[in-house]
Amino acid sequence: MVETGSKAVAAAAIKMALTATRSEEMELKKRLWEEKSIRAVAVDYGGEFIYSVSKIVERAVVAAKREGVIKDTHPDEGAVAGATREAISQIIPKALGLNVGGKIGIARYQDHISVAIFLGIGLLHLDEVAIGLGHRAVP
């Protein structure tokens, strides 16, 4: 039996955020759809963390709509934006005031949407990493 629901969707979002190359991302996206009917997308981002927060949310919503993970509706857009903000809030203590670069992974199965943010945090040559995860349910 194929596991679905919030746990499977969260795992899919994390895996998408951890992909290293565009081809790996496309392969995982295809596999998630074929094996579990999970729609997924990933998008890169980077910059100074404080100034990047609104761009991260915007990129997540736009990518999810562009790839058909969500519909162009207020509830769907709000779910992705809310889950993205939740993921960001988990990263703030490590990233505040520093430069970051990473990937946003978004996954959906039926009414479950998860957003995972994986980022590298630059401080001279002492890089740190962080991951944040948010989940929302939509009708």
Automatic annotation (TrEMBL):
**Among its keywords, does the record have Transmembrane?**
no
| Entry-linked Gene3D superfamilies | Hut operon regulatory protein HutP
Q: Which UniProt keywords apply?
A: Activator, RNA-binding, Transcription, Transcription regulation
Using the record for this protein, list the coiled-coil segments as residue ranges, or answer none.
none
One GO term in the molecular function aspect is: RNA binding
Q: Signal sequence: where?
A: none
**InterPro entries assigned:** Regulatory_HutP, Regulatory_HutP_sf
Keyword RNA-binding belongs to the record: yes
Q: What does this protein do?
A: Antiterminator that binds to cis-acting regulatory sequences on the mRNA in the presence of histidine, thereby suppressing transcription termination and activating the hut operon for histidine utilization.
Q: Give the similarity note.
A: Belongs to the HutP family.
> Could you give the subunit structure recorded for this chain?
Homohexamer.
**In its UniProt entry, what is this protein called?**
Hut operon positive regulatory protein
Q: Which organism is it from?
A: Syntrophothermus lipocalidus (strain DSM 12680 / TGB-C1)
